[in-house]
Design a protein that fits this description.
mainly alpha; 10 helices; 74% helix
């Protein structure tokens, strides 16, 4: 087995068993592989949960990650209906993924943040697909997700090829502009008298400023586009939350109506119970009288037989 095969096995075990499994794998390897195995980091609880999910339900994980490509297309097209629908689908799939984790609330939040980041960012998606996360991921919604030291081993060739293909289709394609020319070799032209002409001096002074302004403008455009994407995501999340809130309000109203009906039924039952208790007491009060009547009748019968 090579290092990648060993790592694929190790990052599928329970975190509590990771160190022992790593030691066992290293013990049976040659010196070079043994040293490499020993460098493999133990995953955090949330990273291990995501790794386990990719192995236990790869189809669900792939459905979550594929939403990223569809959402990038929707954001690029500014299709708010599609964005809203995809956001709802994302929330539904994430809730399904988190339902049976059996982890603490804190770990569950990190798992959700990791999967959210993987939907937003292709590099994060590739890290999740690797099944070898060592820490959780998070996204600001504006900048690229930092996957530095997030996976045990560098991505393999297939993952890199897929990532490169996805990178060719960003959410919003930035306006391409020529890069500023290298100014290191530029010489200053002079007049025969050894002095710059006023026009050349002005050109030499304003050209760097123009290049600097173009660079600033491109950076500002990128920032604006990133902010627009973040705003669209926030709006979609808010609309999805409104829908969830409406559903919960309806559910609460149904439960309150059911509670009121049960309370009315309880009141009727309590009234019927009170009537039953009163009838029972009345019957019990008649028992001594009836017992006396029975005794009197028995004596009368005895007397009649003797007489």
């Amino acid at each position: 087995m090579d290092l990648r095969e060993v790592a694929a096995d190790l990052y599928g075990v329970d975190p509590a068993e990771f160190v022992a499994a790593r030691s066992a794998a290293a013990a049976g390897a040659d010196r070079e592989l043994r040293n490499s195995i020993k460098t493999l980091k133990k995953p955090t609880a949330s990273a291990a949960a995501v790794n386990g999910l990719t192995r236990r339900d790869p189809e669900l994980v792939e459905r979550i990650l594929e939403l990223g490509d569809r959402m990038r297309d929707a954001f690029a097209a500014r299709d708010r209906d599609a964005i809203r629908d995809l956001t709802r689908e994302r929330q539904r799939l994430l809730q399904r993924a988190l339902r049976d984790l059996g982890t603490s609330a804190a770990v569950g939040r990190e798992v959700e943040e990791t999967l959210q980041a993987a939907v937003i960012d292709p590099a994060a998606a590739a890290a999740v697909r690797s099944g070898m996360l060592v820490r959780a991921l998070e996204s600001t919604g504006v900048e690229s997700v930092d996957v530095t030291d997030a996976i045990a081993l560098p991505l393999d060739a297939d993952a890199l090829a897929a990532l490169a293909q996805r990178d060719t289709e960003p959410i919003v394609t930035a306006t391409q502009a020529p890069r500023p020319a290298d100014r290191s070799g530029t010489k200053t032209a002079r007049t025969p008298g050894g002095e710059k002409s006023a026009r050349e001096a002005a050109g030499a002074q304003t050209e760097p400023e123009k290049k600097e302004n173009a660079s600033d403008r491109r950076e500002r455009e990128r920032t604006v586009r990133a902010a627009e994407r973040a705003l669209e995501r926030a709006r979609a999340d808010a609309e999805a939350l409104d829908d969830e809130l409406d559903a919960e309000v309806d559910r609460r109203a149904d439960l309150e109506a059911e509670r009121d009906a049960l309370e009315r039924r309880i009141q009727r039952t309590e009234a019927e119970l009170a009537d039953a208790k009163a009838a029972e007491r009345a019957l019990r009060r008649r028992i001594p009288e009836l017992q006396r009547a029975v005794r009197d009748a028995e004596r009368a019968l005895d007397e009649a037989r003797d007489g």
